[in-house]
Structures are given as structure tokens and as C-alpha cells.
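User: Second chain of the day. Same drill as before.
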Amino acid sequence: MGNILPAIHPGEILKELYLDPLEMSAGMLAKKLNVPRTRIERIVAGKTAMTTDTALRLARFYNTTPELWMSLQVSYDLKIEAERNRAEIERIPVRDAA
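Assistant: Same format as last time:
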């Protein structure tokens, strides 16, 4: 579990690397993606997870891949769960390779 990088919500990446440089609001992006404004606002605020639907829409709009957005979410989820359950997970014995 020795990951030294902090858990970064995909909404933080969306805001800092995509919205802020374009001076675009979450509401404006939501209009362009044809989704409810609250969906993007909640993602940017780190209150809700990236969905496959949103990942597909962001990938199309920003010319990225849906895998990028989903990988950000999975990485965040794994780090949060690893920290939350660290003590219990560390009690699980490591299976010998032999």
C-alpha cells in the first residue's frame, strides 16, 4: 500500500487542468456536455464520482479518452479505500509465491 501520492479526486483535475485554464464554469461545461449543471458542480467539488457517461462526454469534448477520466476515479477510490481499511488489509497474510 506504500503509495506516497495523495488521493486526488478527478473533479480537482477537471477544474485545475481543464476548466480554470479556459476560464470555463462548471455550468458552462455542463451545457456543452448536455448534462445537469449540478452533475459537473458536484464532480468539481469532489462530492460525487465520475460516471462512465460523464467520462465519455468529457473525452469527446476535451479530445481525451474515457479511460483517462475513469482511471482518475479508480485511482482516487483505491487510495481512499486503502487508507480507510489500512489496518484490516494489513492483517491479511501475504501468500507465498511457491
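The chain has six helices and no strands.

User: Great, on to the next one.
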